[in-house]
């Protein structure tokens, strides 16, 4: 027996409410997110916030003292870009449920997001496993054991 129009409307409203709640949860989690990454020479740690903005930069173990300006700049950029890419992948992961089509209500197709266009094609590449991903809670920003 086919569903009545009222049942379909009620189901669509329930899915819309669930989607709104998921969006609110995603916004809360993103607002409190930050990611760290290290340069490959382990001389720099960069931290980015939820919009990819650089929120912290730490020069580790005094290694920067023996580096030339271009070498140090390259390490900073490398760490910052890696942290930004990790944040972008986190955004993609959190948004995945919102981009999928509704299985119960075909009228709610989900979002069509071109992540490569939004963040750049590197965000779709498999991440290299050179170090574990570090996600920091906001309270951790005050802890700076690695600084000299």
Low-confidence stretches: 137-148
Could you spell the SSE succession in H and E letters? HEEEHHE
Going across the major beta sheet, what is the strand order?
3-2-1-4
Task: Indicate the radius of gyration in whole angstroms.
Answer: 21 Å
> What percent of residues are in strands?
5-15%
Counting DSSP H or I runs of 4 or more residues, the number of helices is 3
Q: What is the architecture at the second tier of CATH? A: 2-Layer Sandwich
Q: Give the biggest beta sheet.
A: 4 strands, antiparallel
From the 3D structure, determine the CATH topology: Ybab, Chain: A
Describe this protein's structure:
- The protein has a 4-stranded antiparallel β-sheet.
- It is elongated, with a radius of gyration of 21 Å.
- The protein starts with a helix and ends in a 13-residue tail after the last strand.
- The chain contains 3 helices and 4 strands; from the N terminus they run αβββααβ.
- Strand 2 and strand 3 form a beta hairpin.
- It has 148 residues and is of the alpha+beta class.
- It has a single domain, classed as Ybab, Chain: A, CATH 3.30.1310.
- Helix 1 packs antiparallel against helix 2.
- The longest helix is centred in the middle third of the chain and has 31 residues.
- 43% of the residues lie in helices and 11% in strands.
């Amino acid at each position: 027996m086919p569903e009545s129009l009222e049942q379909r409307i009620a189901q669509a409203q329930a899915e819309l409410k669930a989607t709104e709640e998921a969006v609110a949860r995603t916004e809360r989690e993103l607002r409190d997110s930050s990611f760290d990454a290290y340069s490959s020479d382990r001389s720099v740690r960069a931290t980015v916030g939820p919009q990819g903005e650089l929120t912290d930069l730490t020069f580790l173990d005094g290694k920067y003292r023996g580096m030339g300006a271009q070498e140090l700049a390259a390490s900073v950029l490398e760490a910052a870009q890696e942290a930004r890419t990790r944040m972008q992948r986190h955004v993609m992961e959190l948004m995945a449920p919102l981009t999928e089509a509704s299985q119960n209500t075909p009228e709610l197709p989900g979002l069509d997001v071109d992540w490569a266009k939004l963040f750049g094609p590197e965000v779709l590449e498999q991440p290299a496993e050179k170090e574990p991903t570090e996600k920091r809670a906001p309270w951790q920003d005050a802890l700076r054991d690695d600084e000299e």
